[in-house]
Amino acid sequence: MALFDEKISNQLRNILNQMKDNVKLVLFTQEIECATCKAAHQMVDEIVSLSSKLSLDVYNLVLDKEKAEHYKVDKVPAILLLDKDGNDTRMKFYGIPGGYEINSFLGAILTVSGKRDVIPKEIGERIAKIDKDIHLEVFVSLECPHCPNAVMAAHLLALENPHIHADMIESASFIPLSIANNISSVPKTIINGKMDFIGAQPVDMMLDMLEKV
Questions:
Q1: Is the full-model pTM beyond 0.90?
Q2: Mind listing the pLDDT tens digit for each residue in 174-196?
Q3: Domain identity same for 165 and 198
Q4: Number of domains in the chain
Q5: How far is CA 166 from the centre of its chain?
Q6: Backbone φ and ψ of 91, nearest 5°
Q7: 10 Å Cβ neighbour count for 17?
Q8: What is the CATH number of the domain that holds 148?
Q9: Dihedral sign, CA of 9, 11, 17, 20?
């Protein structure tokens, strides 16, 4: 049974028609031991089928260990985005980017394809100056209307600076990890496993924190 009915599929198709360049999605799965992997696989398959500019590679976390290490994937399901030249954008979605998070997922696809807003010069210069390795983990709930903004801000930073990696983590799919990180409210962003903040902060305020790392 399809996840998206004809009406939703047409809406998604219209959004994806705004893509400029090709984007490759990479899915890491392990369907035997992963409760949400099958649903994530189906969702990605259906979205890819709606645009000729989208393609999909699928890997197994265990069997394709070298690929997982290359892309720094340590849990499943994981979805990555590669640009038209096959470059890793360092933007990941762990879990199913459904519910409100379909907005951040579609936004990521469009952005990687080249359809993006112009970043203010001052913000761009601040992002470019970051020379330390940064790992952003944005814990979300699919029922949270504010979470996509937090994810998109983190992903923008990753896309603009090769030192930054940004993950959306769907908290309900990774309960032990959520407990370990004291996730009681979302969105919650954790920086390098140490600093954290709650809420969808604008990019300039996130930069204030990253510059202190």
A1: yes
A2: 999 999 999 999 999 999 998 89
A3: yes
A4: 2
A5: 7
A6: -110, 120
A7: 10
A8: 3.40.30.10
A9: negative
